[in-house]
């Protein structure tokens, strides 16, 4: 199978599954609400740990090695 045919097959499969499951449209208001909730939660966590939000995010970042 050529690369072009493989890409066409992948595209057809993706379209099929999008129709089958239904593609959900993102609601900007809902996204804003979710992000504000995340920010509030991060601020509460940082405050309870006596640190800034940036410090908390740095600690929770899985790309950083564990310092201990």
Radius of gyration: 21 Å
Coarse morphology? elongated
> How does the major sheet shape up?
none
List SSEs in N-to-C order: HHH
Question: Helicity, in percent?
Answer: over 70%
- Our measurement of the CA-to-CA distance between the termini, rounded to an integer number of angstroms, reads 52 Å
Unreliable residue runs: none
By DSSP, the count of extended strands is: 0
SS-based class: mainly alpha
Let me know the average pLDDT.
80
Strand content: under 5%
Number of helices: 3
What is this structure, in a nutshell?
With 68 residues, the protein is mainly alpha-helical. It has helices at 3-21, 28-48, 53-60. The longest helix has 21 residues, at 28-48.
Q: What would you say this structure looks like, in words?
A:
With 68 residues, the chain is mainly alpha-helical. It has helices at residues 3-21, 28-48, 53-60. The chain has a domain at 25-68. α2 (28-48) crosses α3.
Q: Could you list some keywords that capture this structure?
A:
68 residues; mainly alpha; 71% helix; elongated
